[in-house]
Give the backbone structure.
Amino acid sequence: MLWKFKQQVDTIFVDSNSADFQVEGSVNVILSPSLYWVKKVSLPVKSKREVKPLLESLFEDVLPAGRYSYEAYKFGDDYFIFAYDDKYILDILAKKGIPSSKINGVYFAQNEFLNLKEPKKIDDNEVMLLKDDIVILLPAKFSKAEERVDVSGIKLSKNRVTLKQFGNIINEKSLYAIVALLIALLVLVATEYIVTLNKIEQIQTQRGSIFTKYALKPTMMQNRSLLRSYTEIYKRQMELRKVLAVVLGMHLKSKHKVKFIAYKNRKVIVHYSGLKKGDERYIETYFRAKQLHYSARYKNNIWYVEMKL
């Protein structure tokens, strides 16, 4: 009889300041908060699928320039949303002796330390603790911690991420294949360029029929007017995106929620629930800082806000 044994996979905690590792087999990697961005948000959506298209705009005013991946996980009625730089993390892991080929799974400390009861040392300079459901790092002088982070016996969650590979080792055979592909693409582009020139010449000689075929206006003045109209629509859509990014990106206090959000008659309408009279002041301060123009009224613990675009 042939027996199969499941190979044990060790778990390690990696911070940007961690010492180098000696990795022999596959490992699970828990990323320190220094290696990603996280927010806890309350959104008027029903599923993770509806959250994902909003993630980039929710981090728009936080992230430095770069290329990021995004993830979201349900947490009660709220969501934890994440932004992270795959290449930066892979480079950090490689420098610390953890090649991508040895990585079994990658996890965020946010998901794995949600039950953290007391601060834990990362090193002599930093501690990790849980504040308002967010796992954060603080300088050691601001919070006492007796024990270091220990993940040897931790039970990992199901919330793992896959880091995207941005580079591959190219052997000589692969290089020849790539060169051949590039030559084929150059021939294709050159052919397309010649065909395009011929089409441009045909369009120039058949301008009248083109206007009729594509239902363009009779004069260039009218077509420019149509262009201005579409440009105005585009500007309004960009303004709408900016307003939504501010509203949905704000971290509300406990029990304060966005109950309703809609766009009607060139206005963004937002209803905030759970607020007592005067609670809305910190939201107003945030709106003013973001230079949002709005009108509002308060009734029956609901704060009604309208923002005209």
Notes: Confidence is low (pLDDT under 50) at residues 167-171. The chain is about 35% helix and 25% strand. The first strand starts at residue 10 and ends at 14. Residues 277 and 309 are 27 Å apart (CA to CA).
